[in-house]
Amino acid sequence: MKKISIYKKLAISLSTMLAALMLTVNFASAASTLPYTGASTNASPIPAFDVFYATPGNPLPSPAPSGAESNFLEARVPDNANPALDITTPYSESPLSTSCTNGEVIQLRVYVHNGADAAYNNNGTGPSVAHGVQVQVNIPSTQSTTFDPNATISATNATSVSDDLVLDCTGGQAVELQYVPGSASQYSVATNAFTTLPDTIVTTGTSIQSESVAGDVWACWNDRVIAILLVKVVIPTTPPVITTPPPAPKVLVNTGPGNVVGIFFGISLLAGVGYFLRGRYLVRK
Q: What is d(CA 217, CA 65) in angstroms, rounded to the nearest whole number?
């Protein structure tokens, strides 16, 4: 039996690893846009977020974005009297136009769907489950009449995806968008429950979950997760302009010729009076 050299074994091993890597890359590329065809839809071979788009006669199942899941960051202007309870105002994909009046509340929504094959969830231990899933939303901090907040969905075993949203303020005045602390929450279709999310959703990101394990999002239409948060329109106040009055001019002694003569005459007169009084004092003695 002919022996295979160690170099040949190493070459075969590297070739196998490279082929597996290329296969994974191709899977990831193919999974970036997959057609939704109803019951016959082919799932992604690996955990992947928001990969499906609607086809004629096959709209994406609610609460997905209308045309493609890749437009997963949406916004709306809810009933500002009670935005947390308003479920009738629809979300809008980019752009969203609003008057941006002072104190107006805008609600942002991040839609998360793991498009892998649900048959391989294996009750949370299978290869279709996305682990370490986080959502991060960036709110622009500058004053403007147009804003472009963006959101990123990431995981330890799936490619990160991002989406942005254009928000146009039709009022014409530059405003600020401020995150409303304590307003972030997530809704899980699987558990039909809302869970409070930390304010880190607008800084370093926050973990989400579809079932009971933090950071795990199972692959299934019934395991979709929605993260929601509020931002408020603030019209910046212009600080009053404080003006310092100029210092009063210094009054200088007038040393002109006329004043010099007057001063000399006054001094001479006082000297004469003093001399006269001294003379009378000496005579009396």
A: 19
